[in-house]
Amino acid sequence: MTRTVRRLLILCLVAACTSAVPARAAGSDFRGLLPRYLQSIALVLTDSGTGTAFAVEATPSGTLLITSSHVVEGAHGVRLRIGESEPVEARVVADDPEVDLALLEVTGLSLPTLPLAQTDPGVGTDVAVVGYPLADRLQSVGMGAQPSLSKGVLSAIRQKEGGSVLQVDVPVNPGNSGGPAFDWETGEVIGVVVARLRDASDINFLVGTTSIHTFLAERPAPAPIQTLDSGSIRDLLDQSGIPYEINEQGNFKIVRKFENERTQLVLIYGRVWDYQGIKIRELWAPAFRLGGDLPADLANRLLQMSQVAKIGGWQVIEVGQDRLVTYAIKVVDRMTVDELRKWIDYVASYADTMEREVTGKDDY
Fold first, then answer.
1. Is residue 256 part of a domain?
2. Is the full-model pTM beyond 0.70?
């Protein structure tokens, strides 16, 4: 049997066996479905970051949810949170890094499943994406991690081995990965958010329905997870005696206290980035909020400071209509306790100095 015929048979079987929440009646508005759909869309919490997942199948003991493979890559624990409920444990039961899809299972929790389209929609279709963008950063500044809705159009359909990739202009950010993309007209899921081009505007990608159905039918087994090494950040923080908390996203939250009684929040990402075998970790600290655009004189000041600093730099994070100015550095993950202390002090001092200069307050 050829690969093409086998995939067609798989799709037919999935179409016959999958039972999902029916799409809305013709003429109704997608926004009317959103409250019900949100019951099926979860915030994914791992020790290395956040993402989004959505329910696709009921099981005798719980529910199966789809997310992106890279969201749970290397994770030593996965939890899901829906709405304001407490996070629940989930396990990875299938994983395909090449397609960038993973299947999660939660037991003891029955969620309504979302309707999956059987074919890709046409170019020009209105598309809605629902997910949890920048959940960790929003929570770090006191904002809740509610799901958000973005809308755009299907720009192109790209073909690759094993299925289709949909190009959309819907705004997405870190945390949207693994979330569902809907056909605005039918209310059906047409893709899973997997990637965005950082150096381009409004060019983002979804795994298409062909790949989703094939993945659900084949369910490749996940690779075993490697254990943490003894030089992990948690080990170093424990050795240093520096007080810390681990937030829901698995990031390390530290409050640096200065002799002048000021304090500064510092966050260390639980996730590490791999560059040709070199593991890089990011530390960052919020300085202040902007009520609108960054004034030109302040932007020049931050740029000059970044040039002098060499190691790190200032960045502006979009938070709704506001902008949060933060100072961040990226360092090699392997370090000593003394080096970790110095990096924390370095980031905290830069952020606190700017906060004091710009606002005169001590909000962070």
1. yes
2. no
